[in-house]
Amino acid sequence: MAITYRNAKVISNEEISKDIYKLVVEDDSEIKAGQFYMLKINGVTFLPRPISICEKTENRLTFLYAVVGEGTKEYKMLKKDDFINITGPLGNGFDIEKNYNRVALVAGGIGTAPMLELAKKLRKKDKNQKIDLYAGFRDEIYLIDELKEYVDEISISTNTGKHGHKGFITELLKPENYDTVLCCGPEIMMKKVVDMCKEKNVSVYVSMEKHMACGVGACLVCTCKTKDGHKRTCKDGPVFDGYYVEL
């Protein structure tokens, strides 16, 4: 399967927290909250990386990424007017047309990134909808100021206790107060959230994060286990019903 990449001009690339960068590029594609792009740099041998869409405004596309390996170390060297190769949007995002009623957005670390566009889309659909954010971090927090405009209440936890509750964000979440929980973050956190929602019979949707080589379902690197066997996170997801996927 041929995968076509296009050059996107870098508008900005800045560190917003320790080893967390915000990359803004030019792109006028129509996107859905929860979708992702594959990114790679010309002349670099590292495999492309799947990066969730953080925000889309007019012809600007924002990504957040964590510098965790040699590949993402190359990204942080990008500067204004450089170019990066992108393909997307890819995958199935959150279904904004669903009636989620009272909704909790639950995020862990870099999983907070797609919550911005999701919160914007939900608020645009219904300005009176109950939308609360639960965000957990290791130490430093980020993106919270941007999210404040679109959610009603924000609960924060950090492993170190530097901000908010000291501990895990799942210790603050009470699923029974909501009709739907939308979640993105480390798999161990999402499993806990799904189990909590099942116990209270609350709908839950999770955005899976897996290593990918192609992003279009050809390489089968990113499969995840579901009630119907293994599914491709990139093509069949990354958003799945929490009752369907097996974490």
UniProtKB/TrEMBL annotation:
Molecular function per GO: 2 iron, 2 sulfur cluster binding; electron transfer activity; flavin adenine dinucleotide binding; metal ion binding; oxidoreductase activity
UniProt binding sites for FAD: 49-52, 71-72
Pathway terms, separated by semicolons: Pyrimidine metabolism; UMP biosynthesis via de novo pathway; orotate from (S)-dihydroorotate (NAD(+) route): step 1/1
Gene3D superfamilies in the record: Dihydroorotate dehydrogenase, electron transfer subunit, Nucleotide-binding domain of ferredoxin-NADP reductase (FNR) module, Translation factors
FAD-binding FR-type domain ranges (all copies): 3-96
Family annotation (Pfam families): DHODB_Fe-S_bind (PF10418), NAD_binding_1 (PF00175)
Keyword Flavoprotein on entry: yes
Free-text comment on the cofactor: Binds 1 [2Fe-2S] cluster per subunit.
UniProt keyword annotations, A-Z: 2Fe-2S, Electron transport, FAD, Flavoprotein, Iron, Iron-sulfur, Metal-binding, Pyrimidine biosynthesis, Transport
InterPro entries assigned to the protein according to its UniProt record, in alphabetical order: Cyt_c3_hydrogenase_gsu (IPR012165), Dihydroorotate_DH_ele_sf (IPR037117), Dihydroorotate_DH_Fe-S-bd (IPR019480), Dihydroorotate_DHASE_ETsu (IPR023455), FAD-bd_FR_type (IPR017927), FNR_nucleotide-bd (IPR039261), OxRdtase_FAD/NAD-bd (IPR001433), PyrK_electron_transfer (IPR050353)
Cofactor names: [2Fe-2S] cluster; FAD
GO biological process, one term: 'de novo' UMP biosynthetic process
Keyword Iron-sulfur applies: yes
Residues engaged in binding [2Fe-2S] cluster: 214, 219, 222, 234
PROSITE patterns (alphabetical): FAD_FR
Domain of life, source organism: Bacteria
Transmembrane segments: none
Family classification: Belongs to the PyrK family.
Oligomeric and partner information: Heterotetramer of 2 PyrK and 2 PyrD type B subunits.
Reported function: Responsible for channeling the electrons from the oxidation of dihydroorotate from the FMN redox center in the PyrD type B subunit to the ultimate electron acceptor NAD(+).
Protein name from the UniProt record: Dihydroorotate dehydrogenase B (NAD(+)), electron transfer subunit
